[in-house]
From TrEMBL, chain A:
PROSITE patterns: ABC_TM1
Family under the similarity heading: Belongs to the binding-protein-dependent transport system permease family.
InterPro entries (alphabetical): MetI-like, MetI-like_sf
Source lineage: Bacteria, Bacillati, Actinomycetota, Actinomycetes, Micrococcales
Name used for this protein in its record: ABC transporter permease
GO biological process, one term: transmembrane transport
Alphabetized Gene3D superfamilies for the sequence: MetI-like
Automatic annotation (TrEMBL), chain B:
ABC transporter domain boundaries: 3-228
Keywords attached to this entry: ATP-binding, Nucleotide-binding, Transport
Coiled-coil parts of chain: none
InterPro entries: AAA+_ATPase, ABC_transporter-like_ATP-bd, ABC_transporter-like_CS, ABC_transporter_ATP-bind, P-loop_NTPase
GO molecular function: ATP binding; ATP hydrolysis activity
Name recorded for this polypeptide: ABC transporter ATP-binding protein
Lineage: Bacteria, Bacillati, Actinomycetota, Actinomycetes, Micrococcales
Keyword Transport: yes
Entries under Gene3D superfamilies matching the protein: P-loop containing nucleotide triphosphate hydrolases
Pfam families (alphabetical): ABC_tran
């Protein structure tokens, strides 16, 4: 079976006698071109996902509403059992009517709008500052080593701790509020982006390099989109930190040129020992948080994961 | 311009050399199959030719514009559609800004047609089968418009029917585009099927120890192709058995 002339020592195979011939594959392996085209098209059809278009999934609406109803009902039953004085633990209806009168006065709208506006502006500034910083830190090793621990530390430090300092520096002004919000949100967005970059499969960088990406192209066209799921996680957390820091700042720093936000409303309820107002403010803070998650982050996240084929089998 | 490997060596740190004294010349327009057992440094050699890694000794001559690369798994970017992946490659390859968005879109369309996936351009990688992803990856590699195309076991993870199809497709595209192709594989049949020349790389250290020309005769006569495959397989096994003791 061994065929002598098939094995040639290295020296003989000079480029000159490298075969001129273009390929003609052995007939056993080759069909006619049209047949192959059909075969290929058939395989492509069989192996691609059929497009599925889903309508509105009502369980997304019904289930959370049902859960809410159960909780409110439990609350009402607890109040009806009368373990505590009504003015210390008001029932859901008391809180609702108090919120109604705050709304009628225009106070509720003012507080929600003021806080929401500050939260959103503070958050957007944080994103604009944290994104380039995070990209640079993730890409430049000495900087990462130098500042990484500090950024992680800042994320652990409760941003309320900045309130006294901010009041001394900026007085009772919006500056104080924004400073505290930025100190809360920026580190967590940076950290989210860095961990997103750390989780990029190394092959993407190799591909980028082979495709001839410059440093900036690599960062913007490959690293940033590849890190997007982690980055989005960082943004969500950044928003949560913004919102919390904002409430803390509004509760502590009242008066001056600082407007009337949800935190101020909460503090006002405390000074007046008006538990219904306190509960109204707490619930308003909670619902704003839920609404932002449901209306802004959840759809973006779902879309992002779906497009990358990462949603299959998840409970989202 | 040929690719010339001249006494090329590579070692990682203080370890034993992965590649040692590798010599080979690959002519322009040639299709060379680089054959070796797993772990013989084939991929390292390919990475060196691609400029992803550097040799520790010897010299390397590649065309100045570098080489296109196709990976074992398609390595398509999941956030882009099939067409988007190709367009990104066109954009990154364009250093002078000489192309417009429209011209890149048109070129991406042509490349999709070339790999017979004209209708799948708007699909995302996860919606495509493994074979389709590799065809998109091939189109992306061709989008770089470089003379040399390096392929690192690109069909290893595919089923037999798809692999046969892609062999035909690659051969057709090679003829149409006249690229120089270095195709790494551990599959002897694949090497004989595709290569004009088969280079056998030994293991630890990697070195070119034998080479065979695949002639016209082997392509028209299945029996002769089988004989050549047998010969090469025996030589490869011999090479692997050397490491048993």
């Amino acid at each position: 079976m061994p065929i002598e002339q098939d094995t040639r020592p290295l020296e003989e195979a000079s480029p000159e006698n490298a075969p001129e011939s273009r390929h003609i594959t052995s007939p056993a392996l080759k069909g006619n071109p049209d047949e192959l085209r059909d075969l290929e098209a058939g395989l492509d059809k069989l192996q691609s996902d059929a497009n599925r278009k889903a309508g509105i999934d009502w369980t997304r609406v019904i289930l959370p509403v049902a859960a809410l109803l159960v909780l409110v009902l439990a609350w009402q039953i607890y109040v009806a059992l009368g373990f505590k004085r009504q003015d210390q633990v008001p029932g859901p209806l008391d809180v609702l009517s108090q919120f109604g009168s705050l709304w009628a006065e225009g106070k509720a709208q003012e507080a929600i709008l003021t806080s929401l506006q500050r939260g959103v502006i503070g958050f957007l500034i944080s994103v604009a500052v944290a994104t380039p910083l995070g990209l640079i830190l993730a890409q430049v090793q000495p900087l990462r080593r130098a500042f990484g621990p500090l950024i992680s530390g800042l994320q652990v430090l409760p941003s309320v701790a900045w309130v006294p300092a901010a009041i001394i520096w900026f007085g009772l002004s919006d500056g104080t509020v924004y400073f505290v919000v930025l100190m809360g949100a920026i580190p967590s967005i940076i950290n989210g982006l860095i961990s997103g970059v750390d989780q990029i499969p190394p092959q993407y960088r190799s591909v980028g390099k082979v495709l001839g990406a410059s440093r900036i192209q690599m960062a913007l066209q490959i690293i940033l989109p590849a890190a997007l799921p982690g980055y989005l996680g960082g943004l969500k957390q950044g928003w949560a930190f913004s919102w919390r820091s904002l409430m803390a700042a509004e509760i502590i720093a009242v008066g001056g040129t600082i407007g009337f936000g949800l935190g101020s409303l909460l503090d006002q309820g405390r000074t007046l020992s008006d538990m219904s107002t306190v509960m109204s403010a707490i619930l308003a803070i909670l619902f704003v948080g839920i609404l932002i998650e449901l209306l802004v982050f959840a759809p973006i996240e779902r879309r992002l994961l779906h497009r990358r084929g990462l949603l299959a089998g998840s409970t989202r | 311009m040929p690719v010339v490997l001249d006494h090329l060596g590579k070692r990682f740190g203080d370890g034993a050399p992965v590649l040692d004294d590798v010599n080979a010349t690959i002519e322009q327009g040639e299709f060379v199959a680089l054959l070796g057992a797993s772990g013989c440094g084939k991929s390292t050699l390919l990475n060196i030719i691609a400029g992803l890694d550097h040799p520790t000794s010897g010299a390397l001559e590649v065309p100045s514009d570098g080489a296109a690369f196709m990976f074992q798994d398609s390595a398509l970017f999941p956030w882009l559609t099939a067409r988007g992946n190709i367009e990104l490659a066109l954009k990154l390859a364009d250093k002078t800004g000489g192309t417009t968005k429209a011209s890149r879109a048109a070129r991406a369309g042509e490349l999709l047609e070339l790999v017979h996936l004209g209708g799948a351009g708007d699909k995302r990688p996860h919606e495509l089968s493994g074979g389709m992803r590799q065809r998109i990856a091939l189109a992306r590699a061709l989008a770089q418009d470089r003379q040399v195309l390096l392929m690192d076991e690109p069909f290893a993870a595919l089923d037999a029917i798809t692999r046969d199809l892609l062999h035909d497709e690659l051969e057709r595209i090679w003829k149409e585009t006249g690229r120089t192709i270095v195709f790494v594989t551990h599959n002897v049949r694949e090497a004989v099927r595709l290569g004009q020349r088969v280079l056998l790389l030994s293991s630890r250290p990697g070195r070119v120890v034998a080479e065979w020309a695949v002639t016209e005769e082997h392509r028209t006569d299945a029996g002769r192709a089988g004989e050549l495959t047998g010969t090469i397989t025996r030589r490869l096994r011999e090479e692997i058995r050397r490491h048993a003791n």
